[in-house]
Amino acid sequence: MPTTGDLTPTRTVEGRAVPAPGTYTIDPSHSNVEAMARHLMLSKVRGHFAQFSGRIVVADDIAASSVEVSIAAASIDTRDANRDEHLRSADFLDVDAHPELTFRSTGVEPAGSDRWTLHGDLTIRGVARPVALDLEFLGDATDPWGNARALFSATTEIDREDFRITWNQALETGGVLVSKKLRIELEIQAVRES
Q1: Torsion angle, CA of 27/84/123/171, rounded to 10 degrees?
Q2: What is the CATH T-level fold of the domain 11-192, as seen in this structure?
Q3: pTM > 0.70: yes or no
């Protein structure tokens, strides 16, 4: 069981490691929010969002815990300026009309010996849909400045057409240019508020 400091002692609830109760603020400089799509039905294209914020409330009763995240849609970066501009347009994220993507949890439940399922509503382009994230608590640490941190990893898969992101081009060989399915991956460090 990882325990790396007095400020964030990992505890065990029903045989699973969980962080100490409290409110944690996501540290964007040590966190990553990415989305991955298939291009030409084959290769993976990854984009990360450079600007996001959020809070995680870890309750004494884990089932009462909550997560809220806000992501600046215009901060998408796929390492290709033309593609990024297209993703910001009305064909995809429509950032002028919908500047933020949001996630608000609705519940958390155990999923195996060391994983959790985090349920919540994801809103993209003003469309909210329920999603389930495969969540793992990676442990805790105290940084050199005495800040207590909790580390998490989470993944989910969504169908972008559920959020009215339907632009595509058919390929002569069959299939489409951009996959409907998107994989979302998060690596999160969150600092416990004093």
Answers
A1: -140
A2: Lipocalin (2.40.128)
A3: yes
